[in-house]
Write a structure and sequence with these properties.
With 336 residues, the chain is an alpha+beta fold. The protein has eight helices and eleven strands. Strand 9 and strand 10 form a beta hairpin.
Length: 336
């Protein structure tokens, strides 16, 4: 049975104090910059930016959760750390749980996009690191004094941290918009990763302005990197056996306004012990030759691919892009 002194010591913890710790703010800055600047920029490989957000989030989220639930003692604080680790691991190990999580948050008006990726579990030690670094600051200096309201810096930290933690999944590269029939995407050109291939991190840049279709049709080599917007993100993670649209329609039944369309596409294999890459590659097509139609987001194995498919395969350590139908492709660096 605990002594009165032990109970006082146990109740003396104040998680909000960790939100004023410099390390907590550094982790928050890393999370914000990584999600809203580095991801999709091409400056840092997708494998790095994906894991960086996980590490920063796992470092700071338990202290934020402990603050929000008003954890009062060491056991409660540890419980918050365990809860964050368990939920994170469950979502990374189960695509079904990730989809259910997204659906539940979507019903609350929080449009999350979560991907199950077991390799993200390598970030779990940052939960323990966060506890080791931040827990000492959570202990009240004077446990005998009444609990005071949150200080302004703690209030600001809680609000900003909550915003960026909630925005993390949304900030991942924009995903295919599901429109029309359930499980279908409305698109003309789409990325396809065969079921026997590993998942791919796919980045897409779209034109800054409407293309001069006559000029590009006459000479597709007119496409240049400066034609495309570096800030407009692309597809994101494409799992084995999935299709994702390059330029999905936002409304069912709406055809493209331009006679042509183009994109720059880059892909990386998601792996722990090996990697493969598709350098930036131009993709160009005439919209009239490939109609907008519903594409199954998860086609049946062996199902014939429609024209407009961009098939990504790993061959000898590199990712090959093979288009199906009237789609022109060329490496952005000039290589064939």
């Amino acid at each position: 049975m605990k002594t009165i002194e032990a109970r006082i010591h146990e109740a003396a913890w104040r998680p909000a104090r960790a939100l004023a710790h410099p390390a907590w703010w550094v982790a928050l800055a890393v999370l914000a910059v990584n999600d809203h600047v580095l991801k999709g920029s091409g400056l840092v490989p997708g494998l790095v930016t994906g894991k960086l957000s996980d590490a920063a989030g796992l470092f700071l989220a338990p202290a934020l959760l402990a603050t929000l639930v008003r954890a009062r003692g060491r056991r409660a604080v540890i419980g918050c750390h365990v809860a964050v680790a368990v939920v994170f691991a469950a979502l990374e190990l189960s695509g079904g749980l990730a989809a259910a999580w997204d659906a539940a948050l979507g019903a609350l008006g929080l449009p999350f996009q979560t991907w199950a990726d077991p390799t993200d579990l390598f970030a779990l030690p940052f939960v323990a690191l966060g506890y080791r670094v931040l827990a000492p600051s959570m202990r009240e200096v004077r446990p005998d004094k009444p609990r005071r309201p949150l200080r302004p810096i703690e209030l600001v930290a809680a609000a900003v941290g909550l915003v960026f933690c909630m925005a993390t999944s949304v900030a991942r590269l924009p995903q295919v918009r599901l429109t029309g029939p359930r499980g279908m995407v409305l698109a003309d050109v789409f990325v396809h990763v065969p079921s026997e291939e590993p998942e791919m991190h796919v980045m897409v840049r779209r034109p800054k302005a409407p293309l001069d279709c006559d000029a590009v049709l006459a000479d597709p080599s007119r496409l240049r990197p400066e034609t495309f917007d570096e800030k407009r993100g692309g597809v994101g993670v494409v799992f084995a056996g999935e299709n994702q649209a390059i330029a999905p329609s936002e409304k069912w039944g709406v055809e493209p306004e331009q006679r042509c369309n183009a994109a720059m596409i880059r892909a990386e294999k998601s792996g722990v012990f090996s990697s493969a890459e598709l350098p930036w590659t131009y993709v160009f097509w005439e919209t009239g030759k490939i109609p907008m139609r519903p594409i199954p987001a998860t086609p049946e194995k062996g199902e014939a691919l429609l024209d407009g498919a961009l098939v990504l395969r790993v061959k000898k350590g590199v990712i090959e892009l093979r288009p199906q139908g009237p789609v022109w492709i060329r490496r952005a660096d000039g290589a064939l």
